[in-house]
Amino acid sequence: MRQTQYPDLAGRTVFVTGGASGIGAAVVSRFCAQGANVGFIDIAEREAKGLIATIKEAGNPPPFFIEGDVRDLSELKKAISTVRRKFGMISVLVNNAAKDDRHTLEHVTPDYWDDRFSLLVRPMFFAAQAVVADMRSRAGGSIVNLGAADRPLHSSRSAYDAAKGAVHGLTKSLAYELGRDAIRVNTVSPGWVLTDRQRELWLTENAAEELKTRQSMRREIKPEDVAAAVVFLASLEAEMISGQEIVVDGAYR
């Protein structure tokens, strides 16, 4: 896949949540290819080490990995502070960490519901809170939140969809609040991106046929397609784009 270079991203400090695999790994790789200084947090140490090795083999500056769970806000804030000390003030925040487990309506408990929001929404707000002073001191920055396409592609994930539905509301609010500081906040909402996890757990013959029928663009959506939108929004090419949602779903209907 062709990669556009954005010179303003070279040397910038980027922090990514959930960067070890899937879309997050593609985002980390793309920023490293831009020459950015990338730090990311994830619970998946093995996948993170494999990603770092792959990026090194490609000849790009490797990212810095911090093992941690974004649901633990103290771990999240500590990771942000560690990346700041290593690379300097943070210019770009990508809130990506997620997990789209399936569940039926009858089996959702209050604790499970709260856990979905503690993973999918709460870290976005508090990560933004932790980096905003850096961005103000740099006279600007970019926050990109990963949402989900409006049309659910799966059943049995109402708690996930509810939490993801809240993401763009947070984006709009933060964009308005931070706009005077030249801090841009946007959402990138993927359709069904066929990561290894999706193929292993959820891609059935029926689901693949439905996707083929309802996604107008016939090529599968790759993590790199989503990463391309994220990196664009982080760059100064998107300097006047804020409070918006880019949907990467191959014209699903």
Concise overview:
The protein is α/β, with parallel strands linked by helices and 253 residues long.
Description:
By secondary structure, the chain is α/β, with parallel strands linked by helices. It has a single domain, classed as Rossmann fold. 46% of the residues lie in helices and 15% in strands. The chain is built from 9 helices and 7 strands. The chain has helices at 22-33, 45-57, 73-87, 110-120, 122-137, 158-178, 196-201, 205-214, 223-234, and strands at residues 13-17, 37-42, 64-67, 90-95, 141-146, 183-190, 245-248. The protein has a 7-stranded parallel β-sheet with strand order 3-2-1-4-5-6-7, sandwiched between helices. Helix 2 links the parallel strand 2 and strand 3 (64-67). The mean pLDDT is 91.
Keywords:
alpha/beta; 7 strands; 9 helices; Rossmann fold; seven-stranded parallel sheet
Please state the second-level CATH architecture. Answer: 3-Layer(aba) Sandwich
Strand content: 15-25%
Oligomerization: single chain
Derived from helix and strand composition plus strand pairing, the structural class reads alpha/beta
CATH level 3 topology: Rossmann fold
How many beta-strand segments? Answer: 7
- Total of helices: 9
What's the CATH H-level superfamily name?
Answer: NAD(P)-binding Rossmann-like Domain
Instruction: Name the poorly predicted regions.
Output: none
Output the CATH class name.
Answer: Alpha Beta
Provide the spatial order of strands within the biggest beta sheet: 3-2-1-4-5-6-7
> Quick one: overall form?
globular
Amino- and carboxy-terminal Cα gap:
25 Å
Sketch the topology as an H/E string, one letter per element: EHEHEHEHHEHEHHHE
* Main sheet specs: 7 strands, parallel
